[in-house]
Amino acid sequence: MADTAIKPFEIHISDSEINLLQRKLELTRIPSNLANEQWGENNGVTVKLMEDTIKFWQSDYDWREEEVRLNAIPQFKTSIEVESFGLISVHFLHSPSSTPAAVPLLFLHGWPGSFAEIRKALPALNEAGFHVVAPSLPGFGFTSCPDKAGFKHSQDSELMHKLMLRLNYKYYVVQGGDWGAQIAWTMTLMYSDSVKALHVNLVSIARPTFESEPEYTEFEKRSLLQHEWFDTKEFAYYMVQNSKPRTLGFAMHDSPVGMLAWMADKLFTWSDSYPWSPTELITWTLLHYFPGPTGGFHMYRESSGTEMASGPEAGKYLKTPTGVSAFAKEAEMVPRSWAETKANIKFWQEHDSGGHFAAFEKPDEFAKDLIRFYRSVWNS
């Protein structure tokens, strides 16, 4: 019989892994012959940035201090059966509120994020009366990766729903960005009796057919231009991770500096002038590098990045109350009129700043949006 216990978990990377990492950093081979090139990508990932970050990594960065910060939030693991795929070992953060009758809130991250993206917003959400559950998605971090092909967002949804039931949360609300937005959307369609409200900070759908084209605000016009830019100029990473997740994984699994560069490109390009510190860049990298980044790439092979729901749920109208926070530099955001063709939009808040990593970049605004929206529809 499967072990269904929920067991406390703390992140602890072995000394041997940390020592190996240091040796790899010492052996880093930087292409210094390109230090003055003028044709590189306009993403901030320069030779100087890499050299400075590696130097900081070797001399000042302390992974053990980061472990202490991460482990200050209660974490757990449990094994859950997914139909046709067997047991998945799920890692998750669980931060309960002390408020009576608190609302269970499932936070779903994406790539290149992690469960820790919600960390800055946790105090406000707990204080406002939300029990926050933030799992590592299948293949990410400390959650196991399915070993069979065909693990789609419907399976991700099944796994996340069963996790909430195991925590005795029969009714709950869901929040997601990036892949998390698509999984949350699919979950809400599949388990509408349990999911009482959905909030996302990414909406990626095809242009609907209108009898007459809607009038767009300046914010929406900018969003459409950013979406076009992303699809035409920034989508190559997606094609690589979709077509060659295992091949790319060998390179990234072995090279912490390669993983850093790959991560920094996305963190710089997709955020809105957020002042990433060297510690943040390295910790975000190591939360993929230490457990192994290939599982996160694997989701790109299994899932569609062009629709909010795929498979059996594709095309269905989402009747559940839905809220959207549109941050200024989120590259995958559509006008409200488009979203309203797919979902029962009850809340729509535009922000003049902030990017793809909203919970991390703008935790106060992010938390306030969630609190306002969920309070307006919970038990309504």
Could you explain the architecture of this structure?
By secondary structure, the protein is α/β, with parallel strands linked by helices. The chain is built from 15 helices and nine strands. It has a nine-stranded mixed sheet. A hairpin with a 3-residue loop joins β2 (75-82) and β3. α5 packs across α6 (179-190) and α9 runs antiparallel to α12 (294-302). The chain is globular. The two termini are 41 Å apart. The model has no long low-confidence stretch (mean pLDDT 95).
Separate helix tally: 15
Uncertain regions spanning at least 5 consecutive residues: none
Run of helices and strands: EHHHEEEHEHEHEHHHHHHEHEHH
Distance between the first and last residues' Cα: 41 Å
User: What percent of residues are in strands?
Assistant: 15-25%
Radius of gyration: 20 Å
The multimeric state of the shown protein is: single chain
Strand arrangement within the widest β-sheet reads: 1-2-3-5-4-6-7-8-9
Question: What secondary-structure arrangement, pairings included, does this model have?
Answer:
Layout: E1 7-9, H1 15-26, H2 47-59, H3 63-71, E2 75-82, E3 86-95, E4 103-108, H4 122-127, E5 130-135, H5 153-166, E6 172-176, H6 179-190, E7 195-200, H7 218-233, H8 236-243, H9 245-254, H10 256-270, H11 278-289, H12 294-302, E8 318-327, H13 336-339, E9 343-351, H14 358-361, H15 363-377
Parallel strand pairs: 4-5, 4-6, 6-7, 7-8, 8-9
Antiparallel strand pairs: 1-2, 2-3, 3-5
Helix pairs in contact: 5-6, 8-12, 9-10, 9-12, 10-11
